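Lab notebook, bench 4. Still working through the backlog of constructs that have no structural model yet. Next entry is a single chain of 150 residues. Request: give me the C-alpha cells for it.
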Amino acid sequence: MPEKKIVHIHLDKENYKTVLHAGNHEIIADEPESHGGKDLGPDPYDLLLMSLGTCTAITLRMYAKRKGWPLEDIYLELRHYKDHAKDCVDCEDPKSRIDKIEKELIVKGDLSDEQIERLLEISKKCPVYKTLNGDIEIESMIEKKPVKEN
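Model written out:
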C-alpha cells in the first residue's frame, strides 16, 4: 500500500486562524481582514498556489541538477482566478466558472533556448501539477467529539 501523506489542521474559536501541522512543521493560515480574518497567514488558495509553485521549483532543480545544467535561480509567480467556462456558452447556470491558474517561470543561468523549453515541459510534470490536472477523489468523514465541561 502506498504511503499516505497526513497533515493535521486545527481551527478553534478564533474565527479563521487555522493551525496546520505536517510532521514537525507548523504553518498558520487565515483569511484576509476583508473576509473576516486577521490576515495572520496565507489563505487556502495562497497555500494551493504555494504548493504548486514549490513542487514545480523543486522538480526543475532536480531535473537540471541531474542533467548538469547551469540553472542558478528559479522564480515563479502564480495567479489564481475564476473564469467563465468557454465551453459553457449555453450552460443552464450562467454563473458557471472554471478555476484558472497562471504559472510564470523565470529562470537564471547560462541555459540554451532548448534547455529553457525543456524546463517548461518538465514544469508540467511535477507531482502536484499532475494531481491538480488528474482525477481527484476526496473521501470525507466526520466525527463528533463531546464538549468537555470545566
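Notes after review: The longest strand covers residues 71-84. Residues 83 and 98 are 5 Å apart (CA to CA). Flag for follow-up if needed.
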